[in-house]
Amino acid sequence: AEGIVTVGDTPREDWDETVTKLAKRGIDVVVLTGDHDAATGFLSEHDGITHVFAGVTPAAKAEAVRRLGGDRQVAMVGDGTNDAMALAVADLGLSLGSGTAMAADAADVAILEDDIRSVEVAFDLARAAKRRLERNVGLAVSYNLVVVPLALAGLLSPVFAMGAAVLAGGVLALNSTRELRPTDDGTPAADADTPP
User: Fold this and answer.
1) Kind of pairing between the strands at 92-95 and 74-78
2) Does the CA dihedral 58-64-70-71 come out positive or negative?
3) 147 and 164 Cβ atoms separated by less than 8 Å
4) What is the C-alpha separation between 113 and 179, in angstroms, rounded?
5) What was the pLDDT predicted at 196?
6) How far from chain centre, in Å, is Cα 82?
7) Are 74 and 55 in contact, with CB atoms under 8 Å apart?
8) pLDDT single digits (tens) 145-186
9) Average pLDDT taken over every residue of the chain
10) Is 90 in contact with 76 (CB distance < 8 Å)?
């Protein structure tokens, strides 16, 4: 995965911690900013940041996201009007709470808080949602592989097969509506028992 963090003139509080955590997950962090090299030099020194591109126009940000996404998924984090095009073309666009309405509209996810650490929480929730979806698909396929052939062979009564279908559908619906919440350690509570 590729992660992009856009930083303005003054870096956001906790940016260092967030970049470090994303890098530890194996996410390549690339910074695209309209700021000049002189204002972004400290970013290049951070071990978790793969590349820093300074003086980037909004159109160039969007093109960079397209190119980075050639063979991998790209997430873009931004908060300004100048980030809107790149947020729209990214596989996952995340706008932060202090951002402009245009950035929020262009993004896939609008984070209400103005806390860059919420980016990591968004990744946690997305991972938990994906695991839950995979479980639901597995349940549905298991039902179809077991109950349907038995019903077709005449080994199950049609009433029992219909009851099993309703029960399986109910389990899938309940599992889908369970709330996803990150815990204190950042692990999604709904799937805390599942290894990453």
Assistant:
1) parallel
2) negative
3) yes
4) 19
5) 43
6) 21
7) no
8) 998 899 889 898 888 888 988 998 999 999 889 888 665 444
9) 85
10) yes
Q: Any long-range contacts for 32-36 (C-beta under 8 Å, 24+ apart)?
A: 32/4, 32/6, 32/56, 32/60, 32/61, 32/64, 32/65, 32/86, 33/6, 33/7, 33/8, 34/58, 34/82, 35/7, 35/8, 35/9
Is the pTM higher than 0.85?
Answer: no
Which of 1-10, 86-95, 139-148 shows the lowest per-residue confidence on average (mean pLDDT)?
A: 1-10
If residue 172 lies in a helix (H) or strand (E), which one and from where to where? helix 158-177
- Picking from 139, 138, 96, 102, the residue whose alpha carbon sits closest to that of residue 120 is 96
Give the SS3 label for residue 132. helix
Dihedral sign (CA 144, 146, 151, 154): positive
Q: Which long-range contacts (CB under 8 A, 24 or more apart) does 149-156 make?
A: none
Name the band, by pLDDT with cuts 50, 70 and 90, for residue 85. Answer: very high
Tokens found for residue 152: 């077709």
Q: Single out the residue of 30, 84, 45, 33 nearest to residue 62, CA to CA.
A: 84
For 13, the 3-state DSSP assignment is coil
Residue 150, Ramachandran bin (φ over 0: left; ψ between -120 and 50: alpha; else beta): alpha
90 pLDDT tier (thresholds 50, 70, 90): very high
